[in-house]
């Protein structure tokens, strides 16, 4: 099965974002992962619309937007207009999950639903038929450079078998602490889309780092 690699620009050199985008473009990665944090849903603040618009203007790659914000409902249209190709919301954030997933789809783009490490798969399985992607966080959201939580492999396996049993058209994404070893573990468990920040941006050769994830 083809692995999809999404490069998280949270780990990029912000002063040289244009150069960093070229590096991602030439690396063979499939998508750009864009982490939005509001300082409320998570204990960190990252970037928002102006940066997304700039990235969209300077790259042809798919933009995979991960919203770690408390009230995603308020901003779906704006993120879609700013260039998002996929918008992922957190199950633990405010608002009616199903309505927000529908709102994302009605913007003509793909949707994702994410779960923090403490949220069980059981809680979200009823939403799977309404979304394109399930993001299983493999670290506590908020910061790059954390260690992959091996305990999440069981959640991935559980989700994968439910998806297969119910013949759902949905992919599993993993995010947090992904490197060549942890991506292999997550892939074995059933993940197909791999977000990587530090592992790619701190690599001397991003292209070989991408290849090592496949
Ligand atoms: C963390 C973010 C991740 C982060 C991953 O909350 O959602 O996308 O950039 O970074 P690494 O790959 O360094 O763990
Ligand atoms: Zn992310």
Please outline what is shown here.
The chain is α/β, with parallel strands linked by helices and 214 residues long. It has helices at residues 17-27, 49-57, 76-81, 97-106, 121-124, 152-165, 180-189, 198-201, 206-213, and strands at 4-8, 31-37, 62-68, 86-90, 110-115, 133-137, 171-175, 193-196. Strands 1-2-3-4-5-6-7-8 form an 8-stranded parallel beta barrel.
Which structural traits does this protein have?
36% helix, alpha/beta, 8-stranded parallel barrel, 214 residues, binds zinc ion, 8 strands, binds D-xylitol-5-phosphate
Number of separate helices: 9
Structural class: alpha/beta
Global mean pLDDT:
98
Which spans have pLDDT < 50 for at least 5 consecutive residues?
Answer: none
Gap from first CA to last CA:
10 Å
Bound small molecules, deduplicated = D-xylitol-5-phosphate, zinc ion
Question: Mind explaining what this structure looks like?
Answer:
By secondary structure, the chain is of the alpha/beta class. The protein is 36% helix and 21% strand. The chain is built from 9 helices and 8 strands. The protein has helices at residues 17-27, 49-57, 76-81, 97-106, 121-124, 152-165, 180-189, 198-201, 206-213; strands spanning 4-8, 31-37, 62-68, 86-90, 110-115, 133-137, 171-175, 193-196. The protein has an 8-stranded parallel beta barrel with strand order 1-2-3-4-5-6-7-8. Helix 2 links the parallel strand 2 and strand 3 (62-68). Bound molecules: D-xylitol-5-phosphate and zinc ion (ZN).
Blueprint of the fold:
Blueprint: E1 4-8, H1 17-27, E2 31-37, H2 49-57, E3 62-68, H3 76-81, E4 86-90, H4 97-106, E5 110-115, H5 121-124, E6 133-137, H6 152-165, E7 171-175, H7 180-189, E8 193-196, H8 198-201, H9 206-213
Parallel strand pairs: 1-2, 1-8, 2-3, 3-4, 4-5, 5-6, 6-7, 7-8
Helix pairs in contact: 1-9
The site of zinc ion has 6 residues, from strand 2.
């Amino acid at each position: 099965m083809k692995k999809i690699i999404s490069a998280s620009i949270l780990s990029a050199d912000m002063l040289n974002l244009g150069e960093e985008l070229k590096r991602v473009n030439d690396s063979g990665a499939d998508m750009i992962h864009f982490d939005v944090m509001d300082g409320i849903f998570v204990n960190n603040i990252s970037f928002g619309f102006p940066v997304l618009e700039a990235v969209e203007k300077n790259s042809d790659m798919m933009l995979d937007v991960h919203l770690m914000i408390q009230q995603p409902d308020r901003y779906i249209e704006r993120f879609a207009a700013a260039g998002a190709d996929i918008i992922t919301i957190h199950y633990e954030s405010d608002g009616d999950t199903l309505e927000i997933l529908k709102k994302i789809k009605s913007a003509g783009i793909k949707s994702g639903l994410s779960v923090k490490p403490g949220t069980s798969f059981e809680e979200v399985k009823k939403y799977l038929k309404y979304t394109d992607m399930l993001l299983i966080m493999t670290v506590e959201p908020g910061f790059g450079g954390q260690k992959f939580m091996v305990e999440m492999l069981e959640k991935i396996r559980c989700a994968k078998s439910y998806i297969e049993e119910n013949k759902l058209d949905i992919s599993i994404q993993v995010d947090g602490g992904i490197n060549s070893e942890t991506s292999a573990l997550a892939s074995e468990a059933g993940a197909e889309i791999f977000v990587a920040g530090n592992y790619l941006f701190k690599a001397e050769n991003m292209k070989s780092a991408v290849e090592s994830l496949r």
